[in-house]
Write a structure and sequence with these properties.
Length: 490
């Protein structure tokens, strides 16, 4: 079932896959057409938008202060405060979700301990780091991609591919199975002292990897070994028989999180920026009413006011000179109320949680905590459903690796992938419930629910050892008491 293929197998090329029975297109032309369409697609723009907002590159940074110019047309005004403040609640939302599902290590459980131990060694800390990056991609872009390959040491390894570089070729409408993947990315090269950016293309199917560069709008094979199998082994080049790239989706529709909260995030940035603008509009740059001004023009008046903080006026024909201001009092409470509304709306629409929720005040019970986490819990249920399907694909590659490297055949073994959600709990209440349940539940179940336990099996082994020591100690004490009694009787 999991045999690698040596040498290449005869599997359909991309140009065979894309035939519609009436007209065939050259493979190279098809690849370039797919790349050009994807680069100009709304789907890719949404991916880059999510990445930009996560990194703090929001639309508010492009804001200009506008006014009505001659003829009623808007013109940019550069002599007014124009603060561009980013209050990045979107990044906080992504970080919440990522740490909620992957803040704690993933647990792998099953009947065969040998198989579980081997899987744990493969899914080590470096895998978890890659997994966190892919989870971030799936939230920002709607989908993340993991590449399964062998590293220089011959170890099964995992790598993240950027979603905005990946063009999938799905074999079904539900986007569950892949026929091929096209990866279009940039590579920096130096020719002498000249720095050049090379457009590169990689095509992954079920047997081959093809590597190209784009030169003057044409695909050119990249090097002598531009077409290889998936990996090298002692027997030669080998292939998995399946596309070695796995999608991790945020949701079934592959919709990025930014689509739910972008307008709200922009509104929050705008309100905060406007508040600071209003606070900075003091008498030196607000609206002034001049009476009998003794000067040449308004530009000179503004300059003198900015430099010296004073202005000279005079009385003409009995009319009193002076300067009045037209200003609007800034009500900070109005801005504060709007800011709070936007922040709560971002949390609700993005299905996160408010760590400063009033329900956490005092001594919150577990029901209040669960209520606070209800939205993010519902969203994470959907994420887990998509990730579990991805892990089924991923574990297929792990079984193939173990089988074909002589580490054992585990074709029929079942493994449970458990995402340990990082949720607040009332420890005192949880411990008290564990104590109350000792007479009706098994020790293993109680230990698993205890908030201080990280590894249930290790904790049960420690308990077993301690119980054994206590029993031995009691037996020795009992034997000692019996000997004392015998001596006293004698």
């Amino acid at each position: 079932m999991f045999d690698f293929q040596f040498p290449y197998s005869r599997m359909p090329e991309i140009n065979e896959i894309i035939r519609n029975g009436r007209k065939a297109i050259r493979e190279e032309d098809f690849i370039l057409k797919e790349i050009n369409e994807f680069k100009s697609s709304k789907k890719r723009r949404d991916m880059l938008l999510g990445q930009d907002y996560y990194c703090g590159n929001h639309d508010i940074l492009k804001r200009k202060r506008m006014g009505i110019g001659p003829g009623g047309k808007p013109i940019e005004i550069d002599n007014l405060p124009n603060n561009r403040i980013v209050d990045n609640q979107y990044k906080k939302l992504v970080t919440q979700k990522m740490n909620y599902i992957l803040g704690k290590p993933i647990t792998f459980d099953g009947e065969n301990r040998e198989y579980i131990d081997k899987v744990k060694r493969i899914f080590d800390s470096s895998f978890l780091k890659v997994m966190r990056n892919i989870c971030e991609d799936s939230l920002n872009c709607g989908i993340g991609w993991m590449y399964v390959h062998y590293n220089d040491k011959g170890e099964l390894s995992f790598r993240r591919f950027r979603p905005w570089e990946i063009i999938p070729g799905w074999s079904d409408e539900e986007h569950r199975e892949l026929d091929y993947i096209i990866r279009a990315y940039e590579r920096v090269e130096y020719k002498g002292r000249k720095r050049e950016v090379q457009q590169c293309v990689e095509v992954y199917d079920k047997v081959y990897i093809r590597r190209y560069t784009i030169d003057k709008g044409r695909l050119v094979p990249d090097g002598a070994e531009w077409k290889t199998a998936h990996f090298y082994m002692k027997e030669g080049q080998g292939s998995f028989g399946s596309v070695p790239i796995i999608p991790f989706k945020y949701n079934d529709k592959e919709i990025p999180l930014i689509k739910s909260v972008r307008s709200l995030q922009d509104g929050l940035n705008l309100i905060v920026s406007n508040f600071l603008n209003a606070m900075e509009e003091d008498p030196r740059n607000t609206i002034l009413v001049l009476k009998n001004y003794d000067g040449e023009n308004l530009g000179e008046f503004r300059k003198n006011l900015a430099c010296y903080g004073a202005v000279k006026v005079r009385t003409i024909d009995g009319a009193q000179g002076g300067v009045d201001t037209l200003s609007i009092n800034v009500n900070a409470e109005n801005y504060k109320s709007l800011i709070d509304i936007f922040k709560k709306s971002i949390i609700e629409n993005g299905m996160g949680y408010d760590a400063k929720d009033d329900r956490l005040g005092g001594n919150p019970n577990q029901m209040n905590i669960q209520s606070m986490y209800s939205d993010i819990d519902l969203d994470t249920n959907g994420i887990e459903r998509e990730y579990r399907y991805a892990f089924e694909k991923l574990i297929w590659f792990v079984k193939a690796h173990l089988n074909n490297t002589g580490q054992g055949s585990f074709d029929n073994e079942i493994i449970n992938v458990i995402f340990n959600r990082d949720i607040l709990i009332n420890e005192s209440e949880a411990i008290e419930n564990c104590i109350r349940s000792m007479s009706i539940l098994s020790r293993e179940t109680i230990v698993a629910q205890h908030p201080w336990v990280e590894d249930v099996k290790k904790e049960l082994e420690r308990i077993k050892k301690e119980v054994g020591k206590d029993s031995l100690k009691k037996a020795k004490e009992s034997d000692k008491d019996e000997r004392i009694s015998e001596k006293a009787g004698a």
